[in-house]
Design goal:
With 344 residues, the protein is mainly alpha-helical. The chain contains 14 helices and five strands. The longest helix is centred in the C-terminal third of the chain and has 30 residues. It is globular and about 70 Å long. Bound molecules: tryptophanyl-5'AMP. The site of tryptophanyl-5'AMP has 25 residues, from strand 1, helix 1 and helix 7.
Length: 344
Protein backbone atom coordinates (compact mmCIF):
# COMPACT_ATOMS: atom_id res chain seq x y z
CA UNK A 1 0.00 0.00 0.00
CA UNK A 2 1.41 3.37 -0.84
CA UNK A 3 1.14 6.45 1.29
CA UNK A 4 2.31 9.95 0.42
CA UNK A 5 5.92 10.18 1.61
CA UNK A 6 6.18 12.48 4.58
CA UNK A 7 8.92 13.02 7.17
CA UNK A 8 8.29 13.66 10.87
CA UNK A 9 10.73 14.07 13.71
CA UNK A 10 10.78 15.70 17.12
CA UNK A 11 13.19 17.02 19.73
CA UNK A 12 12.42 17.62 23.42
CA UNK A 13 12.93 21.14 24.78
CA UNK A 14 14.51 19.95 28.02
CA UNK A 15 17.87 21.74 28.11
CA UNK A 16 20.87 22.62 25.99
CA UNK A 17 21.11 20.37 22.95
CA UNK A 18 24.16 18.13 22.68
CA UNK A 19 26.44 17.03 19.89
CA UNK A 20 24.49 13.73 20.09
CA UNK A 21 21.24 15.54 19.23
CA UNK A 22 23.01 17.43 16.47
CA UNK A 23 24.75 14.50 14.78
CA UNK A 24 22.05 11.91 15.47
CA UNK A 25 19.15 14.12 14.43
CA UNK A 26 19.25 17.88 13.71
CA UNK A 27 22.17 17.95 11.28
CA UNK A 28 20.41 15.33 9.12
CA UNK A 29 16.98 16.97 9.03
CA UNK A 30 17.87 19.46 6.29
CA UNK A 31 18.82 16.56 3.99
CA UNK A 32 15.15 15.71 3.58
CA UNK A 33 13.70 19.18 3.06
CA UNK A 34 14.06 19.17 -0.71
CA UNK A 35 12.83 15.60 -1.19
CA UNK A 36 9.84 15.27 1.13
CA UNK A 37 7.19 17.22 2.93
CA UNK A 38 8.76 17.51 6.39
CA UNK A 39 7.38 18.27 9.83
CA UNK A 40 9.84 19.07 12.62
CA UNK A 41 8.24 19.34 16.01
CA UNK A 42 9.38 20.76 19.33
CA UNK A 43 7.80 18.15 21.59
CA UNK A 44 6.86 20.24 24.61
CA UNK A 45 4.19 17.75 25.73
CA UNK A 46 6.81 15.02 25.92
CA UNK A 47 9.04 17.34 27.95
CA UNK A 48 6.55 17.62 30.81
CA UNK A 49 6.57 13.85 31.44
CA UNK A 50 9.46 14.89 33.72
CA UNK A 51 9.14 18.09 35.80
CA UNK A 52 9.99 21.25 33.84
CA UNK A 53 10.20 24.74 35.24
CA UNK A 54 7.58 26.64 33.15
CA UNK A 55 9.89 29.59 32.34
CA UNK A 56 12.67 27.24 31.30
CA UNK A 57 10.29 25.15 29.19
CA UNK A 58 9.20 28.31 27.39
CA UNK A 59 12.81 29.37 26.77
CA UNK A 60 13.95 25.88 25.76
CA UNK A 61 11.06 25.56 23.28
CA UNK A 62 12.29 28.68 21.50
CA UNK A 63 15.85 27.32 21.87
CA UNK A 64 15.04 24.10 19.97
CA UNK A 65 13.21 26.16 17.33
CA UNK A 66 16.36 28.27 16.93
CA UNK A 67 18.45 25.09 16.72
CA UNK A 68 16.25 23.74 13.91
CA UNK A 69 16.78 26.93 11.93
CA UNK A 70 20.50 27.13 12.76
CA UNK A 71 20.88 23.54 11.50
CA UNK A 72 19.74 24.66 8.07
CA UNK A 73 15.97 24.11 8.10
CA UNK A 74 14.07 26.60 6.00
CA UNK A 75 10.77 27.45 7.76
CA UNK A 76 9.12 28.04 4.40
CA UNK A 77 9.95 24.55 3.16
CA UNK A 78 9.47 22.67 6.44
CA UNK A 79 6.67 22.75 8.96
CA UNK A 80 8.31 23.77 12.23
CA UNK A 81 5.96 23.85 15.20
CA UNK A 82 5.42 22.93 18.84
CA UNK A 83 3.39 19.88 19.73
CA UNK A 84 1.06 21.43 22.33
CA UNK A 85 -0.41 23.80 19.73
CA UNK A 86 -1.91 21.01 17.61
CA UNK A 87 -4.58 19.38 19.76
CA UNK A 88 -4.78 16.31 17.52
CA UNK A 89 -1.52 14.95 19.06
CA UNK A 90 -3.24 14.56 22.43
CA UNK A 91 -6.46 13.24 20.91
CA UNK A 92 -4.66 10.63 18.84
CA UNK A 93 -2.51 9.68 21.83
CA UNK A 94 -5.66 8.82 23.76
CA UNK A 95 -6.92 6.54 21.00
CA UNK A 96 -3.46 4.91 20.90
CA UNK A 97 -3.40 4.48 24.69
CA UNK A 98 -6.38 2.24 24.12
CA UNK A 99 -4.69 0.34 21.28
CA UNK A 100 -1.26 -0.21 22.81
CA UNK A 101 -0.86 -3.02 25.36
CA UNK A 102 0.60 -2.61 28.83
CA UNK A 103 2.96 -5.47 28.04
CA UNK A 104 4.39 -3.47 25.12
CA UNK A 105 4.96 -0.41 27.30
CA UNK A 106 6.58 -2.56 29.99
CA UNK A 107 9.32 -3.49 27.54
CA UNK A 108 10.41 0.12 26.87
CA UNK A 109 13.99 0.52 28.06
CA UNK A 110 13.80 4.34 28.10
CA UNK A 111 10.98 4.26 30.63
CA UNK A 112 13.03 1.95 32.83
CA UNK A 113 16.09 4.25 32.53
CA UNK A 114 14.19 7.47 33.12
CA UNK A 115 11.93 6.18 35.90
CA UNK A 116 14.95 4.57 37.58
CA UNK A 117 14.49 3.02 40.98
CA UNK A 118 11.53 5.25 41.84
CA UNK A 119 9.17 3.75 39.31
CA UNK A 120 6.10 4.16 41.49
CA UNK A 121 6.79 7.86 41.64
CA UNK A 122 7.19 8.41 37.88
CA UNK A 123 4.42 10.31 36.09
CA UNK A 124 1.78 8.31 34.22
CA UNK A 125 2.75 10.48 31.23
CA UNK A 126 6.27 9.06 31.24
CA UNK A 127 4.83 5.56 31.06
CA UNK A 128 2.57 6.24 28.07
CA UNK A 129 5.16 8.49 26.38
CA UNK A 130 5.65 6.03 23.48
CA UNK A 131 1.98 6.12 22.51
CA UNK A 132 2.12 9.94 22.34
CA UNK A 133 5.21 9.54 20.16
CA UNK A 134 3.31 7.15 17.87
CA UNK A 135 0.51 9.73 17.73
CA UNK A 136 2.97 12.48 16.74
CA UNK A 137 4.01 10.48 13.72
CA UNK A 138 0.78 8.83 12.68
CA UNK A 139 -1.53 11.83 13.08
CA UNK A 140 0.27 13.03 9.92
CA UNK A 141 0.52 9.52 8.43
CA UNK A 142 4.27 10.19 8.28
CA UNK A 143 6.24 7.50 6.47
CA UNK A 144 9.85 8.39 7.39
CA UNK A 145 11.28 9.28 10.79
CA UNK A 146 14.93 10.41 11.08
CA UNK A 147 16.12 9.74 14.65
CA UNK A 148 19.14 8.58 16.62
CA UNK A 149 19.54 4.95 17.58
CA UNK A 150 18.05 5.43 21.07
CA UNK A 151 14.60 6.00 19.51
CA UNK A 152 14.56 2.71 17.60
CA UNK A 153 12.48 0.84 20.16
CA UNK A 154 9.89 3.64 20.28
CA UNK A 155 9.65 3.54 16.50
CA UNK A 156 9.07 -0.21 16.58
CA UNK A 157 6.24 0.37 19.01
CA UNK A 158 4.75 3.03 16.69
CA UNK A 159 4.79 0.42 13.91
CA UNK A 160 3.08 -2.10 16.20
CA UNK A 161 0.42 0.44 17.14
CA UNK A 162 -0.24 1.30 13.47
CA UNK A 163 -0.52 -2.37 12.62
CA UNK A 164 -2.85 -3.18 15.51
CA UNK A 165 -5.10 -0.22 14.71
CA UNK A 166 -5.25 -1.26 11.04
CA UNK A 167 -6.05 -4.82 12.11
CA UNK A 168 -8.58 -4.04 14.86
CA UNK A 169 -10.57 -1.69 12.64
CA UNK A 170 -9.94 -3.47 9.33
CA UNK A 171 -13.60 -3.90 8.37
CA UNK A 172 -14.62 -0.33 8.96
CA UNK A 173 -11.41 0.99 7.35
CA UNK A 174 -12.23 -0.98 4.21
CA UNK A 175 -15.86 0.12 4.29
CA UNK A 176 -15.09 3.82 4.76
CA UNK A 177 -11.93 4.24 2.73
CA UNK A 178 -11.71 1.27 0.40
CA UNK A 179 -8.17 0.78 1.69
CA UNK A 180 -6.46 -2.07 3.51
CA UNK A 181 -4.52 0.12 5.92
CA UNK A 182 -5.42 3.45 7.42
CA UNK A 183 -1.99 4.14 8.94
CA UNK A 184 1.40 3.56 7.25
CA UNK A 185 4.24 1.65 8.92
CA UNK A 186 6.64 4.52 9.65
CA UNK A 187 10.24 3.79 8.69
CA UNK A 188 13.02 4.82 11.03
CA UNK A 189 15.88 6.58 9.22
CA UNK A 190 18.90 5.72 11.37
CA UNK A 191 21.87 6.13 9.06
CA UNK A 192 25.45 7.35 9.45
CA UNK A 193 28.47 6.99 11.71
CA UNK A 194 27.08 8.83 14.76
CA UNK A 195 23.65 7.39 15.43
CA UNK A 196 24.65 6.72 19.03
CA UNK A 197 27.10 9.35 20.26
CA UNK A 198 28.50 8.24 23.60
CA UNK A 199 29.57 10.20 26.69
CA UNK A 200 33.07 11.69 26.46
CA UNK A 201 33.74 10.37 29.99
CA UNK A 202 32.35 6.84 29.61
CA UNK A 203 32.09 5.09 26.25
CA UNK A 204 29.39 2.75 27.53
CA UNK A 205 26.91 5.58 28.27
CA UNK A 206 24.95 7.65 25.76
CA UNK A 207 25.89 11.35 25.49
CA UNK A 208 22.95 13.02 27.17
CA UNK A 209 21.81 16.45 28.29
CA UNK A 210 20.80 14.96 31.64
CA UNK A 211 24.28 13.63 32.54
CA UNK A 212 25.41 15.49 35.69
CA UNK A 213 28.90 16.04 34.22
CA UNK A 214 29.08 18.81 31.62
CA UNK A 215 32.42 17.34 30.52
CA UNK A 216 30.55 14.23 29.33
CA UNK A 217 29.07 16.15 26.40
CA UNK A 218 29.62 18.90 23.88
CA UNK A 219 26.69 21.30 23.83
CA UNK A 220 25.58 22.92 20.60
CA UNK A 221 26.22 26.34 22.14
CA UNK A 222 29.67 25.60 23.64
CA UNK A 223 32.37 28.07 22.55
CA UNK A 224 35.63 27.02 20.89
CA UNK A 225 37.66 26.97 24.13
CA UNK A 226 35.10 24.81 25.91
CA UNK A 227 34.95 22.36 22.99
CA UNK A 228 38.76 22.14 22.92
CA UNK A 229 38.94 21.54 26.66
CA UNK A 230 36.23 18.85 26.63
CA UNK A 231 37.90 16.97 23.77
CA UNK A 232 41.29 17.22 25.49
CA UNK A 233 39.78 15.72 28.64
CA UNK A 234 37.80 13.04 26.77
CA UNK A 235 38.54 9.54 28.03
CA UNK A 236 40.72 7.39 25.75
CA UNK A 237 43.00 4.37 26.19
CA UNK A 238 46.78 4.01 25.94
CA UNK A 239 46.84 2.29 22.51
CA UNK A 240 47.28 4.18 19.22
CA UNK A 241 44.30 4.32 16.86
CA UNK A 242 43.54 1.02 15.10
CA UNK A 243 44.11 0.41 11.38
CA UNK A 244 40.84 -1.45 10.82
CA UNK A 245 37.32 -1.19 12.22
CA UNK A 246 37.65 -4.54 14.00
CA UNK A 247 40.35 -2.88 16.13
CA UNK A 248 37.65 -0.98 18.06
CA UNK A 249 36.65 -4.18 19.84
CA UNK A 250 36.66 -3.38 23.59
CA UNK A 251 37.61 0.28 22.88
CA UNK A 252 34.27 2.16 23.00
CA UNK A 253 35.83 5.57 23.69
CA UNK A 254 38.14 5.34 20.67
CA UNK A 255 35.28 4.18 18.48
CA UNK A 256 33.07 7.02 19.70
CA UNK A 257 35.63 9.75 18.92
CA UNK A 258 36.28 8.33 15.45
CA UNK A 259 32.53 8.12 14.82
CA UNK A 260 32.14 11.77 15.86
CA UNK A 261 34.99 12.75 13.54
CA UNK A 262 33.43 10.86 10.62
CA UNK A 263 30.01 12.42 11.17
CA UNK A 264 31.43 15.95 11.45
CA UNK A 265 33.56 15.43 8.33
CA UNK A 266 30.64 13.72 6.56
CA UNK A 267 32.88 10.80 5.67
CA UNK A 268 32.49 7.06 6.20
CA UNK A 269 34.09 5.80 9.41
CA UNK A 270 36.42 3.59 7.42
CA UNK A 271 37.97 6.62 5.67
CA UNK A 272 38.75 8.16 9.06
CA UNK A 273 40.20 4.87 10.35
CA UNK A 274 42.47 4.76 7.29
CA UNK A 275 43.63 8.36 7.74
CA UNK A 276 44.50 8.01 11.44
CA UNK A 277 45.71 4.38 11.47
CA UNK A 278 48.44 4.07 14.13
CA UNK A 279 48.16 7.74 15.23
CA UNK A 280 48.38 8.76 18.89
CA UNK A 281 45.26 10.20 20.49
CA UNK A 282 47.01 13.52 21.17
CA UNK A 283 47.44 14.07 17.43
CA UNK A 284 43.93 12.81 16.57
CA UNK A 285 42.31 14.96 19.27
CA UNK A 286 43.99 18.08 17.86
CA UNK A 287 42.45 17.43 14.44
CA UNK A 288 39.11 16.49 15.96
CA UNK A 289 39.01 19.74 17.94
CA UNK A 290 39.73 21.81 14.86
CA UNK A 291 37.05 19.99 12.89
CA UNK A 292 34.48 20.25 15.70
CA UNK A 293 35.12 23.96 16.18
CA UNK A 294 34.99 24.84 12.49
CA UNK A 295 31.85 22.75 11.94
CA UNK A 296 29.94 23.85 15.03
CA UNK A 297 30.96 27.54 15.19
CA UNK A 298 28.70 28.74 12.37
CA UNK A 299 25.80 26.75 13.86
CA UNK A 300 26.28 28.09 17.38
CA UNK A 301 26.76 31.68 16.11
CA UNK A 302 23.50 31.40 14.20
CA UNK A 303 21.83 29.82 17.24
CA UNK A 304 22.82 32.79 19.42
CA UNK A 305 21.67 35.28 16.80
CA UNK A 306 18.28 33.60 16.44
CA UNK A 307 17.73 33.26 20.18
CA UNK A 308 18.07 37.02 20.52
CA UNK A 309 14.82 37.44 18.57
CA UNK A 310 12.14 35.40 20.40
CA UNK A 311 9.37 37.18 18.49
CA UNK A 312 10.61 35.74 15.22
CA UNK A 313 10.86 32.23 16.70
CA UNK A 314 7.32 32.50 18.08
CA UNK A 315 6.01 33.53 14.66
CA UNK A 316 7.76 30.55 13.02
CA UNK A 317 6.05 28.19 15.51
CA UNK A 318 2.66 29.82 15.07
CA UNK A 319 2.73 29.59 11.28
CA UNK A 320 4.04 26.00 11.49
CA UNK A 321 1.31 24.97 13.96
CA UNK A 322 -1.37 26.22 11.59
CA UNK A 323 0.11 24.26 8.69
CA UNK A 324 0.51 21.14 10.85
CA UNK A 325 -3.06 21.40 12.08
CA UNK A 326 -4.37 21.55 8.52
CA UNK A 327 -2.79 18.13 7.84
CA UNK A 328 -3.64 16.51 11.18
CA UNK A 329 -7.25 17.65 11.47
CA UNK A 330 -8.80 15.55 8.65
CA UNK A 331 -6.76 12.48 9.66
CA UNK A 332 -7.96 12.86 13.26
CA UNK A 333 -11.54 13.34 12.12
CA UNK A 334 -11.41 10.18 10.03
CA UNK A 335 -9.80 8.28 12.93
CA UNK A 336 -12.67 9.30 15.21
CA UNK A 337 -15.18 8.15 12.63
CA UNK A 338 -13.38 4.80 12.25
CA UNK A 339 -13.39 4.29 16.02
CA UNK A 340 -17.15 4.99 16.04
CA UNK A 341 -17.35 8.38 17.72
CA UNK A 342 -20.62 10.16 16.82
CA UNK A 343 -20.23 13.59 15.27
CA UNK A 344 -16.96 12.95 13.48
P1 LIG B 1 15.33 13.60 22.28
O1 LIG B 1 14.82 14.98 22.51
O2 LIG B 1 15.85 12.84 23.45
O3 LIG B 1 16.47 13.62 21.18
C1 LIG B 1 16.26 14.27 19.94
C2 LIG B 1 16.95 13.49 18.84
O4 LIG B 1 18.36 13.38 19.14
C3 LIG B 1 18.75 12.01 19.07
N1 LIG B 1 19.81 11.78 20.06
C4 LIG B 1 20.98 11.19 19.79
N2 LIG B 1 21.49 10.68 18.65
C5 LIG B 1 22.73 10.14 18.69
N3 LIG B 1 23.47 10.08 19.83
C6 LIG B 1 23.02 10.57 20.99
N4 LIG B 1 23.76 10.53 22.09
C7 LIG B 1 21.70 11.16 21.01
N5 LIG B 1 20.95 11.73 21.98
C8 LIG B 1 19.80 12.10 21.38
C9 LIG B 1 17.50 11.22 19.41
O5 LIG B 1 17.58 9.90 18.91
C10 LIG B 1 16.44 12.04 18.71
O6 LIG B 1 16.35 11.70 17.35
N6 LIG B 1 11.21 10.79 21.96
C11 LIG B 1 12.08 11.68 21.21
C12 LIG B 1 11.36 12.89 20.65
C13 LIG B 1 10.15 12.58 19.86
C14 LIG B 1 10.11 12.07 18.54
C15 LIG B 1 8.74 11.96 18.22
C16 LIG B 1 11.09 11.72 17.62
C17 LIG B 1 8.86 12.74 20.28
N7 LIG B 1 8.02 12.37 19.29
C18 LIG B 1 8.30 11.47 16.98
C19 LIG B 1 10.67 11.25 16.39
C20 LIG B 1 9.31 11.11 16.07
C21 LIG B 1 13.16 12.17 22.14
O7 LIG B 1 13.03 12.14 23.34
O8 LIG B 1 14.23 12.72 21.52
Amino acid sequence: MSFQERVFSGVQPTGALTLGNYLGALSRFADYQDKYECLYCVVDMHAITLWQDPKELHENTLGVTAAYLASGLDPAKNIIFNQSQVAAHAEMAWVFNCVTRIGWLNRMTQFKEKAGKHRENASAGLYVYPSLMAADILVYKATHVPVGDDQKQHLELARDIAQKFNHDFADIIRERTNLEDFFPQPEPLIEGPAMRVMSLRDGSKKMSKSDPSDNSRINMDDDADTIAQKIRKAKTDPEPLPDEEAGFEGRPEAENLVGIYAALAQEPKLAVVDRFAGAQFSEFKKDLTELAVTTLAPVSDELRRLKADPGHLESVLKAGSERAEAIAEPIMKETKAIVGFVGA
